[in-house]
Write a structure and sequence with these properties.
It contains nine helices and no strands. By secondary structure, the chain is mostly helical. The two termini are about 30 Å apart. About 15% of the residues are buried.
Length: about 140
């Protein structure tokens, strides 16, 4: 990826290209790229465009009996299943997917299902802000 940016931008070997990658090419740094892909996959699960085995892992809190009156169910949070180990919660899609989704801004989580390209545009904007400023709320 770095070699491609050097080739496109005409940079020398030891030039700093992080700003060029972010501002001109609109490439995300690696951690934000991972979160972007996970959030995109959760969006597909909630929209019904993902395989059924993944859709079963992304259940809204409002679909669970007894949790309909919680504030988190109104905000569009997802059910994070109980796991016995922290490693399982941080490395499986059933734990990381809902946690990543809950970290997104509320207005992004409540977009209608038909606005697929608009969702991805806003999601990338959120992650670029996160890469630049360190917080999505700024």
């Amino acid at each position: 990826m770095w070699a491609v940016a050097r080739l496109i931008g005409g940079f020398r070997k030891f030039d700093h290209i992080a700003h060029y990658m972010r501002d001109v090419l609109h490439w995300l740094p690696f951690p934000q790229c991972i979160f972007y892909r996970i959030a995109s996959l959760v969006w597909r699960c909630l929209s019904g465009w993902a395989p059924s085995y993944l859709r079963e892992l992304c259940l809204p809190l409002s679909s669970r009996a007894g949790r309909r009156t919680l504030r988190s169910s109104v905000h569009g949070s997802l059910v994070i299943p109980f796991t016995r180990s922290a490693a399982m919660k941080t490395s499986s899609f059933s734990g990381v997917g809902p946690a990543t989704w809950s970290g997104l801004p509320i207005d992004l989580r409540h977009l209608p299902n038909g606005e697929f390209s608009h969702f991805h545009h806003l999601l990338k904007t959120v992650h670029i802000r996160l890469a630049c400023f360190g917080s999505a709320s700024k």
